[in-house]
Description:
The protein has 14 helices and twelve strands. It is of the alpha+beta class. Helix 4 (about 105-120) runs antiparallel to helix 6 (about 150-170), helix 11 (about 245-250) crosses helix 12 and helix 13 packs across helix 14 (about 350-360).
Amino acid sequence: MESANPARPARYIAHLDMDAFYASVELLRYPQLRGRPVVVGGRRRVAYGESADDRFATLRGYTGRGVITTSTYEARALGVFSGMGLMKAAKLAPDAILLPADFEAYRKYSRLFKDAVRAMAPEVEDRGIDEIYIDLGEAVAASVADGAPDSWARARALALDIQRVVREATGLSCSIGITPNKLLSKIASELNKPGGVSVIRPDDVHSVVWPLAVRKINGIGPRANAKLEKLGVRTIGELAQKDAAWLVEQFGRSYGAWMYRAARGEDERPVVTWSEPKSISRETTFEDDLHPVRDKARLTAIFTELCQRVAGDLQRKGYSGKTIGLKIRYDNFQTVTRDLTIDIPTQDAKTIRRAAGECLKRVPLDRRIRLLGVRVGTLSRPGVVLETHDPSLFE
DNA sequence: TCTGGGGTCCTAGGACCC
DNA sequence: TCTGGGGTCCTAGGACCC
């Protein structure tokens, strides 16, 4: 499968995924837990079962809300994965060690591994705390002098170098996929976890990618997967057999057309090294559902605190926003949102609180509430004069 | 055994303006 | 009094991702 446009140079895009990131950071701190099933999740220390060695809590007898954010490979072998409720996980793996999340530590190691990679290859796109894309085009071109016969072999050698510098900087392992684009690299990095490097050359798409489940495509989630399954489409290869018009009929103009291209491994998105944030939010799920009338005082206090925390985030990061949003999840998990656009962008807690309070008046309060959230969008940087395109100003 | 918290992007309808 | 089409903003919800 050669590039459709011969004028476009070949691309070498890497996707780097840290292995069981949060859990691996915890194992640096508690090396005695290596080899044992460990999960990270839940909230601040609450009373649950102590382990036999009396040092670490186990999942046994865990009650309360919360999900697993990361599990070690030993825990995954017991059927315990990220996103799973902790109470369910406790049934499957009662003796697994449960550690509370320490985001400050994870952010620190995130910075360490990203800085180490950037020192080698500066074209890095952030995809969250434990993932990046890297455009290796320059680095591959620069190593031509090495005299390596095949550019993909050079790319693979670069991936091994990146794994080494990440390990030296953090003590952690990662998996890397290298292909001509982000879509395929994201798939590739998962093929040899943990600690692997996988290369998919353009000609390998049929043999390597098509046998995989459609769910492996980043962008096909649980809903689209279920619908595809009902339509008799299980693998990416089967998806590639469907014609574009049919997919558009089933999934809409934009999504259907995207699926058609994704199944063929086509993706021209560039590696984007920086982008402005679109919104900043804070939300919290209560330990027990709160009643809008009986628990009004507590709800009000939490509501105000969320506004203060969002305002603090805005101020720290240097943004103001003019769309103030409220999010409520009821005890039946139904979620509603309301928002209100104000005239002047703000980063002030009281202003946010007032606007969010207006939003609150527009939501039904006839059920218990499970989650409350506050969001500020349509961000700008205060003090930065925005360019105007109003032609009347120049006539 | 119900499902965290922080995000992005897309769709769709209505208001409003030209 | 009625009828257009296009563009942009606002709002609500939902899919998806890490």
